[in-house]
Amino acid sequence: MSKATTIVGKWESVGNEVRPNQWGGYYFLHRYFHNTETEAHGTLVFYTDDTYTDKSITVEVIGPYQFLQTSTIVDGATETDFEFTKIAVTPHSQAMVDMLNGMPADYLTTWKANSRQEVSILGQGIMGMVIGEYKEYDLTKVEGDLLYYGERPADGSAPDTADKRATSLQVPLKKVAEFSVKI
User: Fold this and answer.
1) In sequence order, what are the residues at sequence separation of 6 or more whose Cβ sits closer than 8 angstroms to the Cβ of residue 152?
2) Could you tell me if 166 and 159 are in contact, meaning their C-beta atoms sit under 8 angstroms apart?
3) pTM value?
4) CB half-sphere exposure, 66, CA atoms < 13 A
5) Which of 19, 75, 93, 126 has its CA 20 to 30 A from that of 110?
6) What pLDDT digit, counting tens, does each position of 101-134 carry?
């Protein structure tokens, strides 16, 4: 079985997750991935609270991935690069609407709560991710029905340079027939 077919399918967070953010606080999120043999489609739903009842923002990233080499640092993991050809964002809270409206781009309309906008044209971007220029340097590992991606940088930034590639794995995703919620 090729490495690509081992990550094919639908994968969902095994539980609610907490990650540090760049401002000294925390993100509360739930992840959903639908991987084909050539493309990853990730949906990350962020919440404002640790009870996971108040959505903040939903970020969708879609694009090809490439397996590189077996990790020399994490046993059983493979260095994997992800590129984004489409990014969609749906702000749910007024704070997110205000933040996004503070980053104007002439190819986007004024942000409104619960209104999804997509960026998919080369050179366009959102939230620091530019189509055709942005790449995440990651790790992948599959054990049975669990998919692990690399741990995100401790400072809350993205692994957007090769020197930020993970040296450990984060909480896994579980393979599912269907997602627990409609996304």
Assistant:
1) 19, 158, 159, 166, 170
2) yes
3) 0.92
4) 7
5) 19
6) 999 889 999 999 999 999 999 999 998 899 999 9
